[in-house]
């Protein structure tokens, strides 16, 4: 009962923390740190929510959550007989855990299929260009730039974008897309997209996904700034926005979204001071503490 109560308290704390986190103002100053904290909140909430139900369900074994589940899977008899509340909690906990895993895996499979189909399409309709080596060029008049993440990642840009951007702006956009590929931002976004499909009515879940999408773009902007001027990247984003940039295909990561472009431009042109190291380490420590607490409560033999 202690484990179930502690996990329920942790789940509640994660939910309240996520709700408060949606209005945080420091995240733009340290997007990578904020992404890690969002990931920790999401994973700890999932483990704590399902764990609270399962910990109560296997209480008759008197061995704790994980050891109780192992005993149940092995068909061992509980110390005290099963009753209806424990059976209901067992079914609910296993169902919730299975749904979370299944939805995440399904989202991953859908993304992999979409990328495979898009690579096959690109092989037919795109071309190499010596002006942009290593990048696939689409002969389309619209402005588009995106990446196809994965083991066989590709960066794609349209002929319209090549005409629209100056050399420096093109370098900035390609550096941004390369950052998405290198840091595997598609894997960061995957569980948040899956959770939104599962809980589309949740304002916190929807806001969390939007926040992480913006933070991922800002993290890519930060890496691109190592290779280009921030103002060049900002002007490239504005050119894309005014030209009516084409959205990235499903499963891909693009440079521009009309919902966040101005926030990114303002951040590039008038950057706020970086988050002080002790705050950054504090948030990273909080992330580690949330995950450690959830894992410990799962294996605690009480």
Structure overview:
With 302 residues, this protein is mainly α. It has a domain of 146 residues. 67% of the residues lie in helices and 6% in strands. Strand 1 and strand 2 form a beta hairpin.
Identify the notable features of this structure and list them briefly.
302 residues, five-stranded mixed β-sheet, 5 strands
Brief summary of the model shown:
The chain has 302 residues and is mainly alpha-helical. It has helices at 2-21, 31-57, 65-73, 84-125, 159-164, 167-182, 185-198, 203-224, 230-242, 261-269, 277-299; strands at 126-128, 135-138, 145-148, 154-158, 253-254.
Write the layout of secondary structure elements.
Blueprint (H helix, E strand, L loop, with lengths): L1 H20 L9 H27 L7 H9 L10 H42 E3 L6 E4 L6 E4 L5 E5 H6 L2 H16 L2 H14 L4 H22 L5 H13 L10 E2 L6 H9 L7 H23 L3
Parallel strand pairs: 2-4
Antiparallel strand pairs: 1-2, 3-4, 3-5
Helix pairs in contact: 1-2, 1-11, 2-3, 2-4, 2-8, 2-11, 4-7, 6-8, 6-9, 7-8, 9-10
The major β-sheet equals: 5 strands, mixed
Any idea what the radius of gyration is?
23 Å
The shape, in one word, is elongated
From the N-terminal CA to the C-terminal CA, the straight-line distance is: 8 Å
Q: List how many beta strands DSSP finds.
A: 5
Mean pLDDT: 89
Oligomer: single chain
Q: Output the number of helix runs.
A: 11
Report the order of strands and helices.
HHHHEEEEHHHHHEHH
Going by helix content, strand content and strand pairing, the class is mainly alpha
Q: Would you identify the regions where 5 or more consecutive residues have pLDDT less than 50?
A: none
Largest sheet, spatial ordering of strands: 1-2-4-3-5
What fraction, in percent, of the residue positions are helical?
55-70%
Strand content: 5-15%
Keywords: Hydrolase, Membrane, Metal-binding, Metalloprotease, Protease, Transmembrane, Transmembrane helix, Zinc
Pfam family, one: Peptidase_M48
Family: Belongs to the peptidase M48 family.
InterPro entries: Beta-lactam_resp_regulator (IPR052173), Peptidase_M48 (IPR001915)
